């Protein structure tokens, strides 16, 4: 066996020395440096393979946004002279306003008539805290719905933390739940189908010391990834849900490392997707590091394969033909040791295997016999997730972020249109919508900082459709497989870790979480769309720069589609939120009085309620509090009023969230409770949900008490 110790983590191409298997602390193999922001070294190692310690993979030399903004300012001088004003008149907020006006914001719009439910819940915001609980406002209560180890399949093994096996893990609720979707049950109104991602594993918190061999630890860890489909049933009280016993739940399903996924779209079957185990290049075993996702109007769930790169061992002798692609995707380390139990993760053995990950997965939870699919037409990168809307034209549009410092925002538009009829034939058609269409990447132009607002215009740049590539020198399949390299050639805007991107169903605007970038201001110059806090604008206004500590608290970007709506090529943008401590001068809450808002840091996932309020979950709060879930109106007089609805336990991040369609409950996934440096199974930093002496990631339902 040439691979490093199964649990050794790598911060570079050299494998770490093998730690003793007897000690979970030694098994950590954590980097010696301190964490980034408030993130523990454990999080950095296990979540994304220490991505922040690696060189930024984007070495395209693309223009950084500050240069673009300067050019935009020059153009604005021309516009002031009345030339070409009509060319930008389609954009709703920025150029349409008088150029010399003061700070501008999107036009307030009256919200729809409020309905009872999560959108209009009145609550006293939860203050920042470090409790080992899910803390909710007075008048609300939480129910644990399901947690790591609970049975999923009819033949599920009883959870025994001291005697875990991969076979058992494939029947149980996996580790580190992230995306939460709730799809209508095909036959029963009192039930729904819960679909959850299992993003990654925290081995030091999962295994009691000395109970499992390194090989067993690896096998269980791999099998604890994937997705779960679980039938849930309404309770007697409004908003109450409980899981149906697997014996009575024929839709329950675990998707894991042995599940076959079918590749679709123009790159399916391409030579670079073929391996010795799959000469067809069309059938992939497993889905890994599934982060966020989305639910489609036709009742399926999309899931993004994110930091897949960390599972591949690139320490052996590699075929140099793959070097550029591997480097652009951060496939550079010795991996997590998975190659010790499955040789397909050893790139010297299977150089094509990583091309089979980094896709958007579509699962049909209503058909437990259906084969889940990976859609090549939506491109390959570190997919945070994908959220679908139906454009006025009937075409399907999916918005997507590539979660890496300095990487891009993307969009897919379908070739065919959505069929809303409730027939089986319509559904069969809708299931093909993500296989043909066009892939786009975003460029953002600032309108200059002298208006005191981070805003401007942008355009979608076409990369490829299912018949033709628009990137010189690259075929359609090459664009889809090496999407990052293709995008590098068309000058999109480098962003600060684009995470969840979703359309507000009420006002039609698009909201993107840009979670943070500790390098902003140093290795990544600031610009109007990516300021160091607000230093870019403040410097232009003559304000002194107080710090240049990077973008530690993140932003929420708001896009308004221009002419053509969601299938058009232009948009206007603004940073609706510059997150952080409201007392810090650089923060911005869409102009709302800052003394009235909750502190918020590191936005990650976004969702909407029935009246169009934005809900934001956070990951990696750099202000010292536990992560949380926040509600923010985006229109009307309360636009920008950020209120913290809940906090998750110590060391956890808030995932999901899911605002139930009946508006009676909010579901969140509590991911990695107790993921704190130095914590082990025997000395946990959290014991949430307090069912055992160790932490268990799980999904909770919040409802009115
Ligand atoms: Fe898995 Fe981008 O967070
Ligand atoms: Ca501006
Ligand atoms: Ca995320």
UniProtKB/TrEMBL annotation:
Q: Which domain of life is it from?
A: Bacteria
Tell me the Pfam families matching this sequence. Answer: PhoX
Q: Where is the composition biased (Low complexity)?
A: 23-32
Q: Where is this region: Disordered?
A: 1-34
Q: What is this protein called?
A: PhoX family phosphatase
Organism, scientific name: Nocardioides jishulii
